[in-house]
Design brief:
Chain lengths: 142, 138
């Protein structure tokens, strides 16, 4: 990288960031239907990731009291993943679900065939619930 | 009570919840990877129940001080007052970096999301790094 790019850490100057392939690397490893590895989960039961021409979308189904709760489909930002994940490096996704009463900022990545989602949940309904972070694991079921 | 997953339907008492104790996060957190080209260390402090973070990142000619930023604290569940993570945002003008941290077994697992806004055609990217609290005990 020879241009005088601005930076706030050496990582911002990594030549791999100007490789167009970094934006879509192994995106197919993320797309599809994913089911929670924990059959007793009280969180997200399944996730579906789709890739459009421009960007990704993510939808989910939470475990509800009387059946699944459909989460709204939301756009996801693809992020180049410069980490080596057991030689299976793939892009990661960042997505935010907005329910009005709650906002869930998430990131999703694949590690050795397992989809990992980390959720940072913020309540906005004055219910007294604590904002919390949670992590769940999913296996692919196409 | 509205919920999107059954684990969010919990009994709470907003009147007695009180602020979370963030003291477990305060101190100097050092990257486990001495060869990182990202964040070298984070200094976390608490004032008035609020968590503040100051980041020092590795640059070509030494550490770069990102300055201080307010952090939003997250618990381990909707009914918990045990701190389990935090998020914060740095806006550098040419780029934004969002930090999302989870505490696991005494480590901070830090996910960094770097988005460029300067038209440099650099790809937005994601990095995960691990930080340990410098405790000086051993």
């Amino acid at each position: 990288m020879t241009q005088p790019f601005e930076f706030k850490q050496s990582g911002h100057l990594n030549p791999a960031l100007t490789d167009p392939a970094a934006r879509t690397l192994n995106a197919d490893k993320l797309t599809g239907r994913w089911v929670n590895t924990n059959r007793e989960t009280r969180g997200i039961a399944e996730i579906r990731i789709e890739q459009g021409s421009e960007r990704f979308s993510v939808s989910a189904a939470g475990v509800g009291a009387d059946g699944p709760v459909a989460w709204p489909k939301t756009g996801a930002t693809a992020l180049a993943n410069l980490e080596e994940e057991a030689g299976q490096r793939a892009v990661a996704l960042a997505a935010t679900f907005d329910f009005g009463f709650m906002r869930a900022e998430t990131y999703l990545r694949v590690n050795k065939g397992v989809l990992v989602i980390v959720l940072f949940n913020t309540f906005r309904d004055e219910s007294g619930r604590s904002d919390y972070v949670n992590r769940e694991f999913f296996y692919r079921q196409d | 009570m509205q919920f999107a997953q059954i684990c969010d339907r919990v009994e709470t008492d907003a009147a007695t919840a009180g602020p979370a104790d963030v003291s477990s996060l305060t101190g100097v957190w050092v990257n486990s990877n001495p060869d990182t080209n990202g964040i070298a260390r984070m200094v976390m402090s608490e004032a008035g129940g609020k968590l503040s973070i100051q980041v020092y990142a590795v640059g070509p000619e030494g550490l770069i001080d990102w300055g201080a930023a307010d952090a939003q604290v997250f618990m381990s569940s909707p009914s918990s007052r045990v701190v389990a993570g935090f998020t914060c945002l740095y806006d550098f003008g040419f780029a934004e970096t969002r930090l999302q941290a989870m505490i696991m077994k005494g480590l901070i697992v830090l996910a960094e999301f770097h988005s460029f806004k300067d038209g440099s055609r650099r790809a937005d990217y994601f990095v995960r790094e691990y930080f340990a609290l410098a405790h000086g005990r051993y």
